Structure formats: structure tokens, C-alpha cells
Please model this.
Amino acid sequence: MARRWLLWIAALAAIVFLLIPPLHHGWTHVETDFPNYYTAARMFRQRLPLRDLYDWTSFQRQMNYAGWGLQLGGYVPHTPLTALPVVPLAGLAPMTAKRVWLALSLLFLAAAIWILARLTHLPVPGLIILALAGHNAMAGNFELGQYYCFLLFLMTVSFWVLLRRREFSAGLLLGAIFILKLYAGPFLFYFAWKRRWRPLAGMLVAGVALSLCSIAWFGWKDHLFYLTDVLPRAAAGEHMDPYAAGMPTILNMLRHPFEAEPELNPSPLLNAPALVFFLQPLVTLAIPVFCLIAIPRNTNLTPTELAWFLIMLVLVSPSRAFYVTVILLLPIALLLEKADLRRKVWLIAAYLLVTITLPSAWEPFFPTVWVLLAVYIALGIPCWRNLRPSIAALAAIAIIVASAISASRRMASYHREPPQKFERVAFEKDAIYSATPTVSSDGVVYESIAENRYLLKHWNHASIEIFPFEGQAFHPSVAVEGGPIYFELVSGGHSQIMVYDRENKAISQLVSSGFEPTHPAISPDGRLLAFIGLHRIIIYSNGAEGALDGPTPVHDVAWFPDSARTVYSAGPSGSSQIFATVSAGAWEQLTRDAGDHTEPAISPDGNWLAFTLARGGTRQIWMQNLATGKPYQLTEGACNSFSPAWEPDSRALVFACDCQRGIGLPALFRARLDSVVH
Model:
């Protein structure tokens, strides 16, 4: 009895000192990541295109519209339905919604601990202490309003009903988790291997039902975009900074020492991309495959087996921030139930090493990856001892061959990608995002992420000048001869068109936020301004505004060198084409092939049209001769190149490219026309 009371006293102390402070912080502060889920949920309710969720600037604009101020955010690499549980809260004020979510997260955590106590016969206060002792992971969930207490609850319930033989129900829950966060997807292979058809059927039913609901809401084309453009890069760990030691995944651990990227990873131990391209699939295939084939094929499901499989999933996850590891409470509790004292000590020690704050100096060595790998190996030894050598050999050969094929294809793409072919411009160490360049006689102005916001920068071949504003600055435009910068400023929940005088360092509003104007484009002679408002082109001149007739919705706009005609992309999202105005009320279509044609740019000599074409899973820059109509593909590779801008002499293009970087988080490059067109 005394021991039980001591446990409860220790648990209450843990709640007071380890849970309440981060909960209070999350209750009173605006921080990522809850704003990401809330913004996506609002976009769901507004029926905005799914593509907008995965476009960094479109999503950031909506985040400000939703009331999150200067808070930075993004939706990559989440699934289309990740934010679905937050949709009921999206009608509330932002901080009210976050506080409701935090209260729900407390309930989810308490329910998960109670179920774990019933499942494992471990004392509730002991589980509370264990959960809160992993302070870094738990605090992150409450400070940031994260998702993983909810996910822990769902996973715990699914294991509970699975081990109580309610297998179809367990499969339904795991299928829902799969569609929300992808973590449970490999359980399809697990149940198939174990010949457990009821949970497999449940997963398939839930997965198909939720997928159909998502397709009915967003449309098939946008889901195809997710499957071809977003999911492959996300599965490869190419989101945010793929070299960051603060994202402790196997994929980052292999890139960090062996692949150079001038801005994000300039000093690896050895620049050997071929080695990275071979090791990444080798390791991330070998770990789950050897886990699966080592599991006995009898139909019995055991807590130890499920715990090992879940630890393996966390280990090979391509996206694992520090707060994700709260999920490990479930497998560790299952393993503790029947463990002897020695085993309990090392399991708890491993859990704490993965979930507490370690010295930042250790990050480049990826200690949590090594700890999880050690736990995975230790738990797998008894199973591997019974593995047939012939099966292990066949699996190893298949994995090596698959990894070699993957590496060969990736290297072929690597050599065609812009970082290996074109000159990098506006180089800046640690720059995570540089895009939408506009080129004039005095350099390049572009948008960038720095100082916790989107701001503008000017590169003049010698230095970089920074222009921060009170809001998020997007889509700069400068006349050919230089002069003021025209841009979209998103602030206070609205978009405005602003002009910044670099000489006088003065900023003024040019177009009000009445219809959320975006994408400003100043004419080459500096007299007329075009922008997008209510999905149409608006022309501003000396305080007067007028709309142009033409296909809608319009996505972006630019000018012909005569400053008399505009070129623009318009049409349904995902299949837009490029059009040009001919005269008042008349237009002509310049592109007609399949794909999504956006971001048109006419060369100053009037001979070439450059544009971004999204097709086949990537965005690439194409050029079209306006006289002959002959197209040329400028960029290639298993990555995205976009936002083309012509230099004043029409001999080169500056563009953004996210190769070897996070999806949609590019650097700037320069391509000479004579290198493409002979």
C-alpha cells in the first residue's frame, strides 16, 4: 500500500513539474504545429484545392488569413486527411481551438494510459511517470499543440481490441491511422504475413472508405497530384531540411555525412551521393523486411511481436521530429509487462534516451537513431535465431538488387538535375527557401524565409540585402531598369499590393485588401501594374483599376515586353494553360498539351515564352519559341524547378529548384539560353 501511495505522489509531482508547464506554455503561446492543422482544416471547410495545401506560399497566406499572424507553417508532408480531426474546431477562434485541442490531448493521453494499464497490468501512476519522464517528447506535444497524443490513443485502442480478438475493429482503427498519418500502413503486410485476414480486411475497408471520402471532397486529380508529386518525396525524407540533424531519421543520418548541398550541408565527411542513394533503400528496406520474415507465420498475435513491429515503424519513419516518440510509450509498456528487472532497466533507459532532451552537440551523431536501432536489434535476436538461412539469403539478395536499381535510377536523375548543370545564384548559407525571382538591370529580387517570416532579398552579384516587413512578403516584381519593388504583403488576415522605394526606404500601399489581391507584376516600362483579384486579372494605373476578360480562374500574370499585353495561366487547377491578351476582350491560347502550365514569362526580346509545367510527378521549366511554337525542356530530374524569370538581355533565365532539398523549398539557379537551344 505504501509503495502504491509513493507511486501516486511521484506521478502527481511529475504532472505538476513536467506536464503543467508545457501545457501552460501551449495554452498561452502561438507556435507551430497546431496552426498547420487548424489552417488545413479551414481550407477543407472552404473547399480550397488540395494543391494549395502543399504549396508553401499559398498555405502561408491562408495561415495569416486564419488569424495566426506571422507564425510560419506548412502542410508538407501530411496526407490529405491528416487535419480531418481538427475540422470540427476550425470554426472556433484560433487560440480557442488550440486550447480545446490541448484539453482533448490531455484526455487522449489519460485514456491511453488507462487502457495501457488494463492491457499490461502495469500501475497507472507508474505509466504516468514513464510517460512524463520522456519530457522532451511529451512537452513538445503540449507546447506545440501536436497530434501524437491523439495518435497514441488511437494506436493503443487498436492494439487493445486486437489482442482481445476484436480483429476487424482493430483493423478499422489501424486503417484510419494509415489514412491520417501513414504510420500504420505496414501493418497491411504484417497481417498478410500472419494470415490474419479479419484485421487486414478492416484496414482495407477503412482505408478505402476514407480515401473515397477524400476523393469526393477534393477530386481525383488533386489526389493524383499528392500520390505522384508529394508522397514519393515525402517518403524519401525530402521535406523541410533533409540534412538536418534535428530530424533524427535514418534518411537524414545517411545524407548528413555523405551528400553535399552548398547551402544546407556544405561540409559532409565525404560527398558520395551514389553511396547515399544505395544505402537509403538498402537500410530502410532491410529493417522492415527482416523484421517481417523473422516473425513466425502462425496466426497467434503477441504483445511482444506487436511492440517490436511498432518500434521498427518508428525507426524507419522518414519523418520523425522529437515529439513523435511519444508513440513509443505503447510498445515499451507492452514489453515491460513480463520483462525481468534487467530488461526493464534497459527498456526504460532506451525510452528516456529517445524522448528526453539530449545535448545539441550530440545531434550530428544522430544518437536517437542509434538507440532505436539497438533496441530493434536486441528485440529481434530471438526471432532471427529461428530464421531459415535460405529465406534470409533470398531476402538480402532481393534488397541489394532493388537498392542497386534504385541507386542507378537516382544517379541518372541526379546528373540531369539543375545543381549539376547550372550556376547557383544568391548563394546564402543555411537558406532554406529562395523563390519567385524577378530580374532587373541591378540584380535579382526574390522572396525568402528568414527572421521567422517570408521577406524579400536583393542579390546584386556581390551581396544580399534584406527587406523585412510587418507581414509575409510574396511575389516581388521589378521593372526591367530597376526601381521600386512591387509585392504582395499578407498581414492582419488580408493581402495587399505594396510598393517599396529602395532609394528612400519607404513603403506604401498601392492596392487595398478589398478582394485579396495577389501576384503583382509591373510592366517592363514601369507604368502599369497587373495583379490577380477574385481569380481575374486586374490592371492598375494611376489609382484606377480595371479587369481584363479572359479564361478563369487566373493563377498568375506577366507582361509582354511592349507593356501593352499580358500573358497568364488560367483554367482548372492541375490542367491550366498559358494565354495571352491580343486586344481588349480578346486572347489567344499559347500552350495546348497535357499538364498544369503556370508562371509564364516572356523574354525581353519577345522571342521566347518560359513557363512551369507540372506533369509526371514533377514541375519543370519549359521554353517555347513564340515564332515557331517549338518547345524545349530546360530542366529535368526527380525534383521540381519553377518560377522562371528572364534576365534583361534575354540570354539567361533565373529560376527556383528544390533538387537535393526539401520539396517546394528551393534555391536559385541561372541557366543560359545557349546551353539549351542551339
